Amino acid sequence: MKLCDLHCDTLTECRKKGEGIARATGHISLERAACLEEWAQVFAVFVPDTLRGRDAANECDRTLDFYDAQREELARHCTPILALENANALNGDLSRLEELARRGVRLVTLTWNGANELGFGARCDPERGLTEFGKLCVRRMWELGMVPDVSHLNEAGFWDVAGMGGRMVASHSCCAALQPHGRNLSDAQIEAVIAAGGLIGLALYPEFLGGAGAAADAARHLRHIIALGGADRAALGSDFDGCTLHPSLAGIEKMPALDEELAELGFSEEIRRKFFWENGANFFGIPAL
Ligand SMILES: [Zn+2]
User: How far apart are the CA of 98 and the centre of ligand 1, in A?
Assistant: First the structure.
């Protein structure tokens, strides 16, 4: 199968464990991904909310350096797409976006669950929107060909981005109508991402999926996004190496089985191809990337 996955924390995990991604012991390794016919993977540089200012920027740079050291090998196995998860790594400096764009960052998660210089995350007051600096950053991202990622952002921040009229992605979130959770998207938010020509990356995290967090639960969320008009906008946003997953979904090598289970649950080959590959690949311009 062909797979384009919108979110994983493998870079940060591997860097911390001192492992190469080729034979990594987490959810993703290049060896185990060999079961895929084609593979594009968003690799997030995760920066925790506990780091501020220069410390946040330094943490980001350390993971970017780790990525640079692995890039050649990664590119032999997949189309790697770089993301920043938490724009606290900008250290409040708009010009840092240019440097990040130069280093290959294509997606920027504006906040994590807490507050930063750009806005307020999913665990903050839902009514506090983006800061002026946050709005400047979103505009600059679009100018630089980057895409703001609204996963982790609170409700008011989400609507501020949506109101600015450019492309956006929710790289790893599910449907709040099926599983009420501060990190999931309401139907109106899902419709806004669809209207913006963005992508919704379905996370496999059991707390977002509800139930056991297995294939049947992922299927319910996918069916819901499609019912809202998102057949061309739904993708996988696994969150590999970012959380504990149901054992049947806990690894890149399990994705062909997920594809088969979705087929058994009635999803057509066309829908599965769009979800696992085409929607993401089209968005990122693969293979022309
Ligand atoms: Zn995340």
Answer: 23
User: If you measure from the C-alpha of residue 42 to the centroid of ligand 1, how many angstroms do you get, rounded to a whole number?
Assistant: 12
- Measured in Å, residue 277 CA sits from the centre of ligand 1 at 21
C-alpha 7 to ligand 1 mean position (Å): 8
The alpha carbon of 157 is separated from its chain's Cα centroid by a whole number of angstroms, namely: 17
Cis peptide before 287 (omega within 30 of 0): yes
Q: How far is the CA of 114 from the centre of ligand 1 (A)?
A: 12
Cα pseudo-dihedral 27, 101, 150, 203, rounded to 10: -10
Residue of 125, 223, 110, 215 lying closest to 175 (CA atoms): 223
Q: pLDDT tens-digit profile of 204-244?
A: 999 999 999 999 999 999 999 999 999 999 999 999 999 99
Centre of ligand 1 to C-alpha 242, Å, is 7
pTM metric for this prediction? 0.97
Please give the domain boundaries of the chain with CATH numbers for all domains: 2-284 (3.20.20.140)
The CA 172 to ligand 1 mean position distance, Å, reads: 7
